[in-house]
């Protein structure tokens, strides 16, 4: 009866190899996504080169769910530019337009005031208590490009996590079951 | 990708700004100068619009240099132009945002008024340009 045992063993090893190959290809996909993201970070000089607009404060220019491409660059901040900034004590970055700039002579340090196109007043109410100006270190990048609607995918996925897990599961299943 | 054709558009905008009145001009309690202006702004930005243009954001900024600051840009007025039909406009207005200096440097100050515009595409690359109108001067005393 030895030949049956051998047969089962060979199938087992075959399956093991298949599973291993599929795990590797899944890893490759994750790794290349990471490479693309980190590459973008390096090229654009912005910590997060792509952001999704979450509020309507820049309507009608940017709507909720639109995607912005950011670029930091070495150029100084100027009035009219749309910047993404972080406020101390707030987690979510804000995308608003610069309306005032005061730049020092020697150091080139800047004082910046922002406002959402669709908001009535400037952003001093959003800033930390007592903060009058944004400085260079608050600013993550300036918007250079624009893609409508695509960001809805991430908004839906963060607000309805089930959809995210279903989607990830389906994708993983697709990768694992796909034959070469 | 769609915005590539935007590069083929060579716009020829025009702008004209008059300071009609200095409404008031004073030093705030904290030592910063503030001035209130009445402005007459006219511009023709129709040539900025292409098939890929969603809107044009336009604003007027006072720009000047002070002993402390290499550049001060203070937005005085802004507006959103939704379509080509609205791109040739004329408006008389007081400054929408407060014209406050960082310090007390505005007496007799020469400054530029610059009309900036930022073109927002339906999709793709955003771009911006400006017309600098030099030769404005604030009064020699508070009023």
From TrEMBL, chain A:
It is a single-pass type II membrane protein. Gene3D superfamilies: Umud Fragment, subunit A (2.10.109.10). It comes from the Eukaryota. CDD domains: S26_SPase_I. InterPro entries: LexA/Signal_pep-like_sf, Peptidase_S24_S26A/B/C, Peptidase_S26, Peptidase_S26B. Its EC number is 3.4.21.89. Residues 41-106 form the Peptidase S24/S26A/S26B/S26C domain. Keywords: Hydrolase, Membrane, Protease, Signal-anchor, Transmembrane, Transmembrane helix. It is an enzyme of class 3 (hydrolase). Pfam families: Peptidase_S24. It is found in: Endoplasmic reticulum membrane. One of its GO terms (molecular function) is peptidase activity. GO terms for biological process: signal peptide processing. One of its GO terms (cellular component) is signal peptidase complex. It catalyses: Cleavage of hydrophobic, N-terminal signal or leader sequences from secreted and periplasmic proteins. Catalytic component of the signal peptidase complex (SPC) which catalyzes the cleavage of N-terminal signal sequences from nascent proteins as they are translocated into the lumen of the endoplasmic reticulum. Specifically cleaves N-terminal signal peptides that contain a hydrophobic alpha-helix (h-region) shorter than 18-20 amino acids. Belongs to the peptidase S26B family. This is Signal peptidase complex catalytic subunit SEC11.
UniProtKB/TrEMBL annotation, chain B:
This is Signal peptidase complex subunit 3. It holds the Pfam family SPC22. The keyword Transmembrane helix applies. It is found in: Endoplasmic reticulum membrane. One of its GO terms (cellular component) is signal peptidase complex. Its main location: endoplasmic reticulum. It is a single-pass type II membrane protein. Signal peptide: none annotated.
């Amino acid at each position: 009866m030895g030949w049956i045992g051998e047969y089962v063993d060979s199938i087992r090893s075959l399956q093991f190899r298949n599973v291993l190959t599929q795990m590797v290809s899944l890893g490759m996909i994750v790794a290349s996504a990471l490479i693309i993201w980190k590459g973008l970070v390096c090229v654009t000089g912005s910590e997060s080169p792509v952001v999704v607009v979450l509020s309507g404060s820049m309507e009608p220019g940017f709507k909720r769910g639109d995607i912005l491409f950011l670029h930091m660059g070495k150029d100084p901040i100027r009035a009219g530019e749309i910047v993404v900034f972080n406020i101390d004590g707030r987690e979510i970055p804000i995308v608003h337009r610069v309306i005032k700039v005061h730049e020092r002579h020697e150091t080139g340090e800047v004082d910046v005031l922002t406002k959402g196109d669709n908001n009535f007043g400037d952003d001093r109410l959003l800033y930390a208590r007592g903060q009058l100006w944004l400085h260079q270190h608050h600013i993550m990048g300036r918007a250079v490009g624009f893609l409508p609607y695509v960001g809805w995918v991430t908004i839906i996925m963060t607000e309805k996590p089930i959809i995210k897990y279903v989607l990830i599961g389906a994708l993983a299943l697709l990768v694992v079951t796909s034959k070469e | 990708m769609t915005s590539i054709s935007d590069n083929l558009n060579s716009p020829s905008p025009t702008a004209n700004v008059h300071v009609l009145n200095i409404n008031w001009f004073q030093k705030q309690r904290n030592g910063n100068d503030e001035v209130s202006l009445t402005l007459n702004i006219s511009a023709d930005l129709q040539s900025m619009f292409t098939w890929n243009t969603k809107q044009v954001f336009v604003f007027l900024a006072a720009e000047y240099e002070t002993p402390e600051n290499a550049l001060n840009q203070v937005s005085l007025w802004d507006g959103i132009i939704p379509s080509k039909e609205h791109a040739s406009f004329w408006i008389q207005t007081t400054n929408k945002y407060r014209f406050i200096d960082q310090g007390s440097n505005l007496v007799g100050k020469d400054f530029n008024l610059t009309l900036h515009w930022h073109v927002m595409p339906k999709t793709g690359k955003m771009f911006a340009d400006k017309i600098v109108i030099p030769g404005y001067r604030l009064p020699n005393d508070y009023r």
